[in-house]
Design a protein that fits this description.
The protein is built from 15 helices and 10 strands. With 450 residues, it is α+β, with helices and mostly antiparallel strands. Helix 2 packs across helix 4, helix 4 runs antiparallel to helix 5 and helix 9 packs across helix 11. The relative contact order is 0.05.
Length: 450
């Protein structure tokens, strides 16, 4: 930019030059000749590509509908291919005609056809490559930005357009923000974020496959890799477009202090989540009890832990509650869980036989471990029965505790019924008196108040 010339005047001059170039190109197309013939050929090819797009799209859709069990990523890919079949047909036909004309006539007579074929192929490639960007808005920004840049590049006007967009800027003191900077930042950050996501996905998969790393450390490592990669991608993208971040140091410090006071709970949960992952007190897959909640850890997030119960409910428990509250981890050091059930038999039944029958009944229930044999003990002599406790072990608490207790009780019932072991219950005798006076005379005297 020349400092002696007014920026607005230079902008108008650049705009007039671009308009003049477009006018010359349109006049060359209107004038009969090979350039006009190429335009006609391209229009015909576009019409044929549109017809082929409709026909091949219907055939592809019918083929996909006849197939069952396809993965979702395959179906998404088919949808993207169907949307761009017309452009693909156009690129294929235009490229073929360009190669033929290059061999039978002067190269200049097929220049526009070759340019159109190249642009169509590049647009298709960019469209498929942009699918790697998950965020829909960011994906559209990257795709349109690359489309526009590729078009200007192959038209040999990229430098002129870049200079034109760079002049459309806002300047406040030393701060300058142009349209070109915004577009470049969006494209560069989108591409870097996509690369970071791909590297993060690959690294996370390898970390999860490493059996030498505990589940909690796997989660911590995956989170750390994601934070590092995405943070690096963001700062590299900002630096790549020339934005100086040193001036934001004081502002970011003030914002950090404000967030520290306003988001104490959030920060506490974040720090608690890191502590949980480091000390390995709770890890994905553990069966825990917290208050009235009993379930297993599905995921450990930065702010909360997801606990899934047997009835399908998913509780999102803040990490701070897992640190400060009392948590029962049924599978902290191992997966073995001991369960106790209580029952009673009549005094007329031999307790030695009762204990043996109870142990055998528990052994015959699925999920009850045999190498950690059940035991049965007498715990007291009650008013109506001899009281016992039956203890047994299981290894899969995620399968439920109530159901296994119920199965053991049912096995005891069947065994006791088969061997005539009676289970007593409290009985009461009620005496009905015929004479009310006799009833009054038999009442205990009511003591006089002192």
């Amino acid at each position: 930019m020349n400092p002696d010339i007014d920026p607005f005047t230079e902008f108008l001059a650049s705009l007039q030059a671009q308009f003049s170039g477009v006018t010359v190109f349109v006049q060359s197309i209107v004038t009969p000749g090979w350039r006009q013939n190429q335009i006609i050929i391209l229009i015909v090819l576009a019409s044929i590509a549109w017809v082929l797009h409709r026909v091949s799209g219907n055939l592809l859709e019918n083929y996909v509908r006849s197939r069952e069990g396809w993965a979702k990523w395959k179906l998404r890919m088919v949808v993207q291919v169907k949307r761009r079949l017309g452009l693909m047909w156009f690129a294929l036909m235009a490229g073929s005609i360009y190669l033929v004309m290059q061999n039978i006539t002067w190269p200049s007579r097929s220049y526009l056809i070759g340019l159109a074929a190249t642009l169509a192929a590049v647009w298709v490639g960019i469209a498929f490559a942009a699918r790697l960007v998950r965020n829909r808005f960011m994906r559209r920004m990257v795709m349109w930005g690359l489309w526009i840049y590729a078009t200007f590049y192959f038209l040999n006007i990229a430098d002129e357009v870049s200079a034109f967009l760079d002049r459309l800027a806002i300047e406040v003191g030393d701060f300058r923000l142009s349209i070109l900077t915004i577009i470049t930042a969006a494209v560069v950050i989108g591409v870097l974020f996509t690369g970071a996501r791909l590297v993060s996905t690959t690294t996370s998969a390898r970390i999860r496959k490493n059996e030498d790393i505990s589940p909690s450390m796997q989660v911590l490592a995956v989170k750390g890799v994601q934070v590092l990669l995405y943070g690096f991608a963001f700062f590299m993208g900002v630096k790549a477009v020339g934005i100086d971040l040193t001036g934001l140091a004081v502002l970011s410090g003030a914002i950090g202090v404000g967030l520290g006071f306003g988001l104490q709970k959030v920060v506490s949960n974040l720090v608690s989540g890191v502590i949980i992952l480091i000390d390995k007190s709770i890890k994905p897959g553990d069966v825990i009890s917290l208050g009235d909640t009993f379930g297993w850890i599905q995921t450990l997030g930065a702010r909360y832990a997801s606990v899934v119960t047997r009835d399908g409910k998913e509780y999102l428990i803040p990490n701070e509650d897992l640190i400060t509250g009392q948590v029962v981890n049924w599978s902290h050091s191992n997966d073995f869980v001991r369960l106790d059930i209580y029952f009673g038999t009549a005094y007329g039944d031999d307790p030695h036989i009762v204990r043996k029958l109870a142990i055998d009944a528990a052994k015959g229930v699925d999920r009850v471990l045999s190498f950690k044999a059940p035991v049965c003990h007498i715990v007291g002599f009650g008013d109506s029965s001899v009281d016992y406790i039956l203890r047994f072990w299981i290894k899969d608490p995620t399968g439920g505790l109530t159901n296994i207790r119920g199965n053991v009780y049912l096995a005891l019932w069947d065994t006791f019924k088969e061997h005539d072991i009676s289970i007593p219950f409290p009985q009461r005798e009620v005496l009905m008196l015929e004479d009310s006076k006799l009833a009054l005379s038999r009442r205990a005297p009511i003591p006089a108040p002192e």
